[in-house]
């Protein structure tokens, strides 16, 4: 089974950079509500959306943390082992994405392919966060800090077409 990409993330339409929707895992929201975390701590949703994960947020019970592990919370090897376990009883192949953080190296990704080969997986798919200028699912918004307009990548630099903010000029 594929874990959730994140417990909270932004969906950004590739065809319209201004269309952005926020997603929260509804099962997590209900679990937190039943435990009382949402009523006690109004900032908890901000903490979840800023990282996509609940693993490092204080005050959330361990049983909830164990139940809501995301694709970015587990190691690439754990992704491969998950695929291996699912594929064991199937004569064809299983599709599974191995998620990598943006700072993953070629060596990290090569290790996942070697692990998959060693465990006799029939194939794997890898995705390295932020490897594309525009991606549909995002944990951070990439909004301009000055005017909140979505930043655009131009000539290798993130900049704002509305107010002129540029990450290269700071």
Share of helical residues: 25-40%
The largest sheet has its strands arranged as 2-1-5
Gap from first CA to last CA? 43 Å
Query: What number of structural domains do the residues give?
Result: 3
How many E-type strands?
Answer: 7
**Sheet with most strands:** 3 strands, antiparallel
Order of helices and strands: EEHHHHHEHEEEE
Instruction: Report the mean per-residue pLDDT as an integer.
Output: 83
Low-pLDDT segments: none
Radius of gyration: 19 Å
Number of helices: 6
Can you tell me the overall shape?
Answer: flat
Class from secondary-structure proportions: alpha+beta
**Strand proportion:** 15-25%
Structure write-up:
The protein is of the alpha+beta class and 170 residues long. The protein folds into three domains: 8-67, no CATH class; 76-128, no CATH class; 142-170, no CATH class. It has helices at 26-35, 37-40, 44-51, 62-67, 76-87, 106-118; strands spanning 8-12, 20-24, 97-100, 125-128, 137-138, 152-154, 157-159. A hairpin with a 7-residue loop joins strand 1 and strand 2 (20-24). It is flat, with a radius of gyration of 19 Å. The relative contact order is 0.15.
Characteristics:
170 residues; alpha+beta; 3 domains; two-stranded parallel ribbon; 6 helices; 31% helix; flat
Task: Detail the topology: elements first, then pairings.
Elements: E1 8-12, E2 20-24, H1 26-35, H2 37-40, H3 44-51, H4 62-67, H5 76-87, E3 97-100, H6 106-118, E4 125-128, E5 137-138, E6 152-154, E7 157-159
Parallel strand pairs: 3-4
Antiparallel strand pairs: 1-2, 1-5, 6-7
Helix pairs in contact: 5-6
């Amino acid at each position: 089974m594929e874990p959730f990409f994140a417990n909270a993330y932004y969906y950004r339409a590739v065809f319209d950079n201004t269309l952005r929707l926020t997603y929260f895992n509804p099962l997590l929201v209900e679990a937190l509500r039943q435990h009382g975390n949402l009523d006690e701590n109004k900032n908890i949703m901000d903490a979840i959306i800023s990282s996509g994960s609940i693993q490092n947020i204080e005050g959330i019970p361990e049983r909830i943390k164990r139940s809501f592990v995301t694709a970015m919370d587990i190691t690439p090897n754990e992704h491969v082992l998950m695929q291996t376990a699912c594929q064991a009883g199937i004569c064809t192949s299983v599709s599974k994405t191995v998620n990598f953080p943006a700072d993953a190296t070629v060596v990290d990704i090569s290790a996942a392919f070697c692990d998959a080969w060693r465990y006799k997986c029939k194939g794997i798919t890898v995705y390295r966060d932020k490897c594309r200028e525009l991606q549909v699912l995002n944990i951070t918004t990439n909004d301009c800090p000055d005017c909140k307009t979505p930043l655009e990548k131009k000539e290798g630099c993130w900049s704002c077409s509305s107010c002129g903010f540029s990450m290269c000029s700071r």
